[in-house]
Amino acid sequence: MTQPRIHPETGQVLRRDARLQTVSVGSMSREVEVPGWYPEDDSDSIHSGAELQALDQAHLELRTAYAARVKAVRKKLGLTQEEAGRIIGGGRRAFQKYESGTTPPSEAAVGLIEILDRHPEELETLRNLRSLAPREGVGGRLTPTGKRQTPAKGVRSAAA
């Protein structure tokens, strides 16, 4: 049996163990058994880089899998990457990054992607809501009556 250690910051006794840790990306998650030095409670544990490789591998696999899921949902909805970025959020190039796995979607975008996957009929509702909001780069703001107010040429808006 391995001798216990003392945590260098907390002073707690640590014992060699393996515990399940959850890795999440988007709406996907996986439990991974991670060896290390653990206290009796759920406070800070200590791990070597080699011990964390399973977590890193699971995170990479989930990122790749969720990127494929985002693409599948977008195609199911019949949207281009640019349309999806405008309707779901994140900007014009967001879905290019989400689908390549280089950038994970925000929690808000994940929520909308998952709702639209389960309720694709709500795409029109979201489209209508987005068409009411002023788009970046399109002049003016909406007045309380819903009309677009554009600044006069050569005059900067106070918000700019």
Provide a quick synopsis of the model.
The protein has 160 residues and is of the alpha+beta class. It has a single domain, classed as lambda repressor-like DNA-binding domains (434 Repressor (Amino-terminal Domain), Orthogonal Bundle), CATH 1.10.260.
Key features?
160 residues, alpha+beta, 434 Repressor (Amino-terminal Domain), three-stranded antiparallel sheet, two-stranded antiparallel ribbon, 5 helices, 19% strand, elongated, DNA binding, Cro/C1-type_HTH, HTH-type_reg/antitoxin, transcription, MqsA
Describe the structure.
- The structure is a single chain.
- The protein is an alpha+beta fold.
- It has a single domain, classed as lambda repressor-like DNA-binding domains (434 Repressor (Amino-terminal Domain)), CATH 1.10.260.
- The chain has five helices and five strands, in the order βββαααααββ.
- It has helices at 53-77, 81-88, 94-100, 107-118, 123-132, and strands spanning 5-6, 13-25, 28-38, 141-142, 148-149.
- The strands form two sheets. It has a three-stranded antiparallel sheet with strand order 1-2-3, with helices on one face. It has a two-stranded antiparallel ribbon with strand order 4-5.
- A hairpin with a 5-residue loop joins strand 4 and strand 5 (148-149).
- Helix 1 (53-77) packs across helix 4 (107-118).
- The radius of gyration is 23 Å and the shape is elongated.
- The model has no long low-confidence stretch (mean pLDDT 87).
